[in-house]
Amino acid sequence: MSAPIWTVAEVARALGVAGSFPNTPIDFITQDSRLVKPGSLFVALSGTPSGGFVSAFASARDGWEFADKAEAAGAVAMIVPHEIAGIRVPQIVVKDTLIDGLWGLARAARARFGGPVIGLTGSAGKTSTKEFLAAYPNAYASPSSFNNFWGVPLTLCNARPDASLWVVEMGMNQRGEIARLSELTRPTVALVVNVQPVHLEKLGSLEAIRREKVSIALGLPGDGVLVLPAGLKASEWKGKVGRFGEHAEVHEVAHAPHGESWQVVAMIGKKQIAFSLTPGAPHRVQNALAALAAIRAANLDAATLAIKLDRVGIMTGRGVEQMVGGVTVIDDSFNGNPASVAAALQSLQARNIGGGRRVAVLGDMLELGDDAPAYHSGLTEHLDGIDAVYCVGPLMRHLYDVLPAGKGLGWHDDPATLRPGEVASLLKAGDVVVVKGSKKMFWVNKFVPGLVAALQAKA
Fold first, then answer.
1. What is an example of a GO molecular function annotated in this UniProt entry (predicted)?
2. d(CA 379, CA 375)
3. Which of 33, 178, 253, 354 has its CA 20 to 30 Å from the CA of residue 47?
4. How far is 250 from 247, CA to CA, in rounded Å?
5. Among 144, 176, 172, which Cα is nearest to 158's?
6. Is the overall model pTM greater than 0.70, yes or no?
């Protein structure tokens, strides 16, 4: 049996909380009472984030209101802002359960780990790249998309001290957040997967987005390495830089499709390495190159990772496909921005299909600011080889109005009132359809499961 990641007494000492605490093992740390299992430490966060952070999912209730449920589910201790009456397990009381509790424990976790830590961010594809990095033998990586002000410290707190490598994904909801997350993580390698027009509404310009992404370097030590796409400037960082992409030290030499898989040959420094990706797609090649470049920068063996890449599949909502009633449905609905929508269309174009059509169901790309109409209408540049497009949302009307003749399947203004059966009725056996848009367009409304059910009923 593996050793616990913490004991209750160790957590109390790490947070500077005086008193007598037991050496009860802790195997898992969570802020969600619904995820508590036997052996867990429950961190009772406020429903309204502290520390100046912003959440799109702030709760009207505080975590400590669910202390009894956490205890019943098997929590062995809790971090709370005050003693909770009726709770029998140890309570570690701190002033602020986010900053003094969760972040304090994350700092202690990072301080005891001496191995390489890769921190990564990017406008699109960072979670997929993180999954590639997680394939390195005995690596520990952020679960799901734990990349915000509570997800990053939870990742650090739960990371195995005996891992070969820690991989920590970082995102943002406001200016300055990536720098704070990086300074908490203290990566030895910082990777920027790409810089694309995402969060323009909040940051205002592509240059501001670049600065925000490159600020991940603020957590690096002086001998750390910043890994960047070819051509992306980062004059703010004066230390060592590694690069991937065309003409960089890590770049693709060639690829050959074989069914769903792509056989890829890449140059890693002066060494040529061949590997497979399933499924293969241009953006997946770029994400793989980013991961290989980061592994190289961490002084680990890129070839060891390369042979594992073919086992890295697609996460839910990021390209998972299924055949229903003769229609291939690709669920890429988790999120959408100009770069990721273009990548989804490019992947659809590359599909070898029979007598059916390549169909794109596209929802609004949000947070693009004043340039949003132009970004939506500009998607016409990526529609060669796409046979039909169904548009959803007021912003996608800008694309629908300029679609080439015969490509428009329809437009619906409100995703909340869109009936999946309406789209299913437009599809026929042999079609390959990709569903893509910002999270609020399809993912939150569970549109794809509804579409699958409608296609099953129709079959």
1. ATP binding
2. 7
3. 178
4. 8
5. 144
6. yes
